[in-house]
Amino acid sequence: MAGGGDDGATGAPDDVPDLPPATLPFDEEAWEAHVEDARDDPAKLYIDVDGYEGPLDILLDLARRQKVDLRKISILELVDQYLEFIDRAGEMKLELAADYLVMAAWLAYLKSALLLPKEEQEDPSPEELALRLQLRLQRLAAMREAAARLMARDRLGRDVFVRGAPEGLRVLKKRAWECEWFDLVQAYGQVKARTAPVVHMVRERMVMTLESALSRVSSMLGVAIDWMELRQFLPPHADPKLKKSALASSFVAALELAKQGKAELAQEETFGPLRLRSMKRGEGE
Amino acid sequence: MSAPDDLTRAVEAVLFAAENPMTRDEISEHLGGADVRDALADLSEHYDGRGVNLVKRGKLWHFQTAPDMANLLRREREEVRRLSRAATECLAIIAYHEPVSRAEIESIRGVQTAKGTLDVLMEAGWVRAAGRREVPGRPVIYATTADFLSHFGLESRRDLPGLAELRAAGLLEPVEEAMERELDSRATENAADSGDAGEHTEEEATDDDVRSLDMGDESA
Amino acid sequence: MSAPDDLTRAVEAVLFAAENPMTRDEISEHLGGADVRDALADLSEHYDGRGVNLVKRGKLWHFQTAPDMANLLRREREEVRRLSRAATECLAIIAYHEPVSRAEIESIRGVQTAKGTLDVLMEAGWVRAAGRREVPGRPVIYATTADFLSHFGLESRRDLPGLAELRAAGLLEPVEEAMERELDSRATENAADSGDAGEHTEEEATDDDVRSLDMGDESA
């Protein structure tokens, strides 16, 4: 309900001298004295208004002046006091933040609602609104008192002290090195391997020699009865690497057989399938 | 006076020499993993009533001068920063309600909180951001620190002055909840006034149950 | 233990909180001119035998941790670190070839050796300087220590595996080849993981065939 005015006059900036906790229970005489002073010097009261942290703060102070338990506070009386406070501030031409005026308007509404006959009340009822205000004041008062009690405790560095000149605890770091036997031995192995004279070895590749291709092709040609494609002469289950070698060797073998007059070759088109058959049969026909 | 054993002497020496309060585990670690529980208990008892006391704040142990010596020691050193009223109220609200968002602090104080106010508390090391509340906008929530307990001489948050009374009076619950309860009890009173006393008592009992549940929850 | 009187407690607190040792007069002045002689005597006696003592140095009084507890204030913590690759190689070379000079180590490793590497091995206590080689320049030669043997669980240096054993264990392969094989097997593992194990298994088998051929050749 208080909303937040954002200009400087609303919340007291932290560097404004605050009321010390001891004066927190509202000191009526001091307040009156301030008001008296303020008649001569309006700026003085201004500082006090500025010292309030928003309308709820003023309301709490005013409530305390009723000198009754906050639970039994008369909201109507409180409203009157607040409105009077705002009036007085207005007379003294004090600059009031929007918050204070919004609260005044709201309280004026609350007051009129409280004075209306019950039947005409809307929802939420003015009693609920008054109760809400009362509960908020109770909570603020509780926290204010708690803060004062907290600040009054035996505080370290103010009331109680730690040792003035502690020797201090030092933790010295000492490095411990770790190495496994396997790492050691493996490292040596790799040093030796790295620096050993390099010997190049050519891996044995899977090849079909020309001799074996020649004998394979000629023996297969011997039993063939028709043209055969060159690829049909390759070993059927060979590994791909071996297949390439076998193809090359078989091709050379085919050329060799043709040259020897034992086979004849045919190819319909460039890069087309290369076919061959035995020459013996051709002679026979 | 019986002579203290070596472990007790060691704990005494370590805590005297330490520049910062130490947890029991830290002390133990410093002493090669010894169980220092008994030694700490012996020392606390031994120093009780002396000019220097061994105290536990949160989980941290340290020696400090006895509170009744404050006048002798306070001297000229006013090192402790004087907090503004806004800051003391914020600190109290955070301590008694933690974890709490800035909006919640503002709703209790009825006024916006200047940015610097929370900064001052965080700089003093008494308040820390404690994550975010999982509600729309995910506001940062604040809580007190171990230093807060040390500084204000609290063994735990349960030792906050007047905490139990405030809780029992329902002054730490949000206004909305208090409203509901209050309205309920008023309705009951009215009903009671009109002759039905039995219901009233029953209602009252339920209320108490809810409150004690709350407390159980808090301490858990 | 009799409870200390207030003056004794005050002296205790003042000395505890003091940032510097204090003379008797300073203490007395701090306490409104009280005679603190007895209090100091009581405190000295009380703290005698505890983990903290009240001591007088010259005319200055102060608390200090008991002398036999001084070692507690400086605690050593071991930080275990793994030997670097370079240091491991150096250590291995020294172990296999000792005594060796730095130049010899470098020629065996095939790379320059940073000064820090040998320092680390000496810090670890595994290597020591073992005199100088009587050649021009008189280089320092290095050897392993008894700690080295005990750390690696060796009776003597003769327990280190010989070259033949290293070869049998596959430890004499050039790094690149060992790397490749490692990568291959990882690739296979990954492929197996990703589900198309079939294709790769075939590939692997072929590879193995070739390898066994290789080995046959080498042993031949």
UniProtKB/TrEMBL annotation, chains B, C:
Disordered: annotated span: 178-220
InterPro entries: ScpB_csome_segregation, WH-like_DNA-bd_sf, WH_DNA-bd_sf
GO biological process: cell division; chromosome separation
Keywords: Cell cycle, Cell division, Chromosome partition, Cytoplasm
Keyword Aminoacyl-tRNA synthetase part of the UniProt annotation: no
Protein name per Swiss-Prot or TrEMBL: SMC-Scp complex subunit ScpB
PANTHER family from the UniProt entry: SEGREGATION AND CONDENSATION PROTEIN B
Gene3D superfamilies: Winged helix-like DNA-binding domain superfamily/Winged helix DNA-binding domain
Biased composition (Basic and acidic residues): 178-187
Lineage: Bacteria, Pseudomonadati, Pseudomonadota, Alphaproteobacteria, Sphingomonadales
Species the sequence originates in: Croceicoccus pelagius
